[in-house]
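Quick one: structure for this chain?
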Amino acid sequence: MYRRLGRYVEVPARGAVFDGGVTAFPRPPRLHRPHREDVLIAAAGLLGGVLLWALGLHTQGSRGLTGLWVLLPLVAMSLMELLRRSAPRTALFVATLALLADQFTVGSVATIAMFTDIVYAAVLYGSPSAARRIPWGTALATVVVTVAALSWLRSPEGLFLGVVAGAISVAPATTGVLVRNHRDAAEAARLRAEQTALLAEMDRTQAVTAERARMARELHDMVANHLSAIAIHSTAALSLDDARTTKDALTVIRENSVAGLAEMRRLIGLLRESDDTDDRRPSPAPTLRALDSLVEQARTNGASSGLTFTLADRRGEGPALPAPVEMAAYRIVQESLTNALKHAPRGPVTVSLDRSRRALRVEVVSPYGDRPGPRAPGSGAGLVGMRERVALLDGEFEAGPVAADDAGGTAGTKIWRVRAELPVDEEDGAA
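Got it. Here's what it folds into:
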């Protein structure tokens, strides 16, 4: 971290980087090992060039330097083949100089062949800006070479030299552009496919989560009502040593057990995907027409607790409600009655339904306070489920204790009120 200055004094070394009191040094550039294919290309080009030199095969006859001078551009070009991927810009610059040097010798076909490969690699593996500039640069160089050759030789041979210059520069550069475009298109397609798969997985996860939440609400709303009644009456039967009370409790327990079993079978039938016959298919979801039976069942279950239940349906005549609205309203009433059976002291429980042109209002009012005698435990999942049902329909929901005089009750007391407003689309309901 430090370099010595004098005998005892140390100062930070040059190039050190300070970050939060920690001295670090910039990492030197990492030297990449040549790719295996690049090594093979360089070795093949070098051996081929040496073989052509040994056989005396040249590109320019005897015009130029002979002997070992031919091997110098060849060796330089083969070394640049090792950098065709890791440093394509440097490789192209040095290769161009080696090609120019080769023109002062008798020439080698291997040197020219390796130069075309380096031009191709510079476009394919270089930066996007280099891939755009190199084809135009080679085209401009070809034009310059053609004009210079025609001016110098003043014969059709100059045009031939221009064609050769284009073949060893423009052609590989154009090929590199085409291959690079196809590679980029394939990479973009792969990324789009991965993104599509990721979005599909996210949609699937969200759908599974939403379905699990829906089934959890259904299971809680269907079973909690019956199990709460069973828990309350079984506790009463165990705590009171009275044959009449025990018989009545067992009757209620049996009725709720049978009803809960039927609801559970309906839920299992909804979960199964089968091609059963019509008589085995699950029964349709409950609607508001079944509220009378629901309130009557609550009246039976809550009789021993001193609870009375009343249904005030002021909806009147009108188009049928959408199925999701009816289902949500039914479950809200069902869960509210279940909570009253669990927690409410003796007193009246009122269920009110009112419908306007745009919304269905559901209100359940029950006594609030300490309850004597047996009571079933609660987890709070019922309120969460009701809130979720109303939120899915973009409605409004509130639940909690309020002053009784605000709800038309006895002044100075409190009640528990559940109120939900569910939006209704008249056209959807009529359809």
